[in-house]
Amino acid sequence: MVEISADAAVVGGGLGGVAAALALLRAGRTVILTEEHDWLGGQLTSQAVPPDEPSWVEQFGVTASYRALREGIRRYYRDHYPLTERARAQRELNPGAGHVSRLCHEPRVAVAVIEAMLAPYRGSGRLRVLQPYRPVGAEVDGDRVTSVRLAHRDHDADQVVLHASYVLDATETGELLPLTGAEYVTGFESQSETGEPSAPAEAQPLNMQAVSVCFAVDHVDGDHTIDRPASYDFWRAYEPPFWGDKLLSWRCPNPRTLAIMERSFTPNPDDDPQLVQADQRVNPGDANLWTFRRIAARRNFTQGAYASDIALVNWPMIDYLEGPVIDVPDADRHLAAARELSLSVLYWLQTEAPRHDGGTGYPSLRLRGDVTGGADGLAQAPYIRESRRVRALTTVTEQDLSVAIRGDKGAVSYHDSVGVGMYRIDLHPSTGGDNYIDVACSPFEIPLGALIPQRMTNLLPACKNIGTTHITNGAYRLHPVEWNVGEAAGALAAFCLDQATTPHAVHADGRLLADYQHRLVRDGVEPRWPDVTGY
C-alpha cells in the first residue's frame, strides 16, 4: 500500500477543498488534495450548479481568491470563446445570462480555471492531487488523526495512506467525521437543543434536504428523446402531499410563500442577455425555468457559434425526497433513484410536458452530457445540499441570522470572524416530508469557533460540515461561503504549523487570534460587512 506524507491532507476537492489547498500552498506548505470525481470544483463543476451568490458580489462580500476564480472564468470566455463584441465589452459578463446568478457559465470553464490556479503548485511539487480517490478509513490516536486511507473510486484494491500534521475534511458529506470518530450531527436538531423557531420538537437525524442530480439541455432540430427510464411510471405518478400537483408538472410551491405557483418554460426565448437582472433581492429568477439557470446564452456568442442556449436543469421537480443518502445502509439505492428521477424528468419534458401552445412534449430537447461530464449524460455527482456537521465550539443558529428575529440589528457579529456570507436561509423540501423552509437572512459572519471541533485537535471541517444547524446550513452552504470556509480552514492549519500551536489555542488566545485574522485580511478575506440589509 502506497503511503504519502505532506504538511496537510485536504480530503475532498470541491470549492472548500480547493480554497483550503490554495491557502496552505500560498503559506508555503505541502499539500495532498484528493477528489473522488473527475473534476475538481464540487458544486460548481461535477455537480454542475451555477454559483449562488449575494446581491453585492461584484462589489464586496467574497474573498479575494474567490473573486479571482470568478474573474478567471470571465477571462477564459474572453480569451477562448467567440463572444460578440458587445458581450466581450461587458465588465460583468454573464455568459449564460441566467437569472439565478450574475455569473452563470458552463462547468468545464470553472474546471479549467481551478486547474490553472493550482498549476504552479503542481509544477513545484508542493501539491499532489489524487483523483479519483475517496476516503475509506482513518487511524486516530486519542484526539488526533494520524492517517487517512483512500481507495480508488473504480478499483477498490488500489489504496493509498495519507500522513499529515493537519487533516481537512472538505468532502461533500463530511465523510471523515464518522471515519475518525469525531462528534457530529445530521438532519434536523430539536428546538430544545437549538432554540430555533423553525425547528421541530424532537430531533430528526434522517430528515435532510433533498439531493438533486442536475443535467444540461439545449433545444435543436430533431427528435432527441431518450429511452423511457425504468422507473418512469413511478415518478410520473409521484405527488408529494404539499406539492399542489404531481412532481412532474409545472406547478409547485413558491419557496418563499408556499403558495402553489405555475412556472413557464420557453426554450430559446429571444431575450437580450444584457438586460437580465440577476438579483435575488428583487427576483428569485425562477418564473421561466429555461432562463432560471441558463449557462450559455446563444446571443452572447457570434452568430451560429451556439445553435441553442444551454439550460442547466436544477429545478424543483428533480429534488429527490424518498430518503437520505447519509448514514443509511441503502444510500447507493437512493443515489441511483435520484439519477432515475432526473432522467424521468427529462423524458417527461421530451414527451408529455404541457406546452403553452397547447401541445405536449419537447422532443427537440437534447441532453448535453458533454457539458456536465457524466457517463449517463447527467452531472457527475449529485448536488449535496446538506452534510454531516461537526460538533463545533460554536454552533450558528436561526436566531443568529433571521431578519424576522434580528430585525435592524443585523446578524450576530463574532469577535472571531473569519469571513462573511449572505444567502437566504433556503431549505429545499426534505426527506422527512417538510415543505420549503425559506427565511429572510441578514448578511452574516463566519465564526472561527464553527470551524473547530469540540474535541479533535488536528481535524478541521472545510466544506458544508461546519458548526451550523439543519436550518442555518441553508444559508452557509452556497458557493462563496464554502470557498471562504475552506480558505479559512487552510489558513488556520498553516498558521498553526507556523506558530507551533493548535486551533483550540488560536481560538482561546486573543493575541494568536488577532495574528491569524490579520493574515486572513492580508490575503483578502473580508471579516465584516459594510452597512447592508438582508433579504
UniProtKB/TrEMBL annotation:
Q: Which Gene3D superfamilies match?
A: FAD/NAD(P)-binding domain
Source species, domain of life: Bacteria
GO terms assigned for molecular function = oxidoreductase activity
For this UniProt record, the keywords arranged alphabetically read as follows:
Oxidoreductase
What EC number(s) are associated with this protein in UniProt? 1.-.-.-
Root EC class: oxidoreductase
Give the InterPro entries listed for this entry: FAD/NAD-bd_sf, NadB
The protein here is known as FAD-dependent oxidoreductase
Q: Which organism is it from?
A: Nonomuraea insulae
